[in-house]
Design goal:
By secondary structure, the protein is α/β, with parallel strands linked by helices. It has nine helices and ten strands. A hairpin with a 2-residue loop joins β4 and β5.
Length: about 240
Amino acid sequence: MCSRSDDDMLEARIIKNRREISVDVSLALGRGQSLGLFGASGAGKSTVLACIAGIEEPDDGFVKLDNLQFFPPSLPLHRRPLRYLTQEPGLFPHLSVGENISFGIAKAIAAEEEQRRWIATLRDRFQLGPFWNAPASLISGGQARRVGLARMLAGKPRLVLLDEPFAGLDRQLVRELIDDLVFWARTLGFSMIAVDHQAEVLKRLCPHQAIVLEQGRIVQQGSWDDLYRAPATPLLRSLLAPL
């Protein structure tokens, strides 16, 4: 269980019974901090993220962001000040790239000069200008990932959840997207929880702290140096072994 401090932004205990495993994970995350969830496929990492995001409802436990209770009872998704990005960008194919990025932002806010400047900043930072007005159905997979990241940042979320959003991309693009995420995390000050099956990716995204899950339970937590120096289980040792 992650220890609690007075400046915790997110506190959660996720209890979720699945056919294969029973997940019981507690965590706490301070403002502007990042946390990597690591483990083998099927360990329960994605379940934890989905329950925090509201895609799934825990069977028991609680999720709280500052004074805002996500669960229980279950707070509607649109009222949770977070963004959740998975392997699929989830773009609307009939909308343009620009319309996808602004989707979900209230019209009154979208019309404000400050918000227009922010959207323009994202357009330029992610190099989306050349296909800004193109339908999302016509852009490449790598471009779609950039659009997904820009849309995630458009509303300046307080909490970002990443569930292997770089799967299937070439290494150079992964490095560029990670650099962008780390830059905006520092700039905007959002907190971040990331899941990935590659330790090296998580180390770059969340360099200071990690939680390792096996069969729905935390088996180790701490710095990446701690994990590499003394992995708690044989499975973790094998996952961290050089290829």
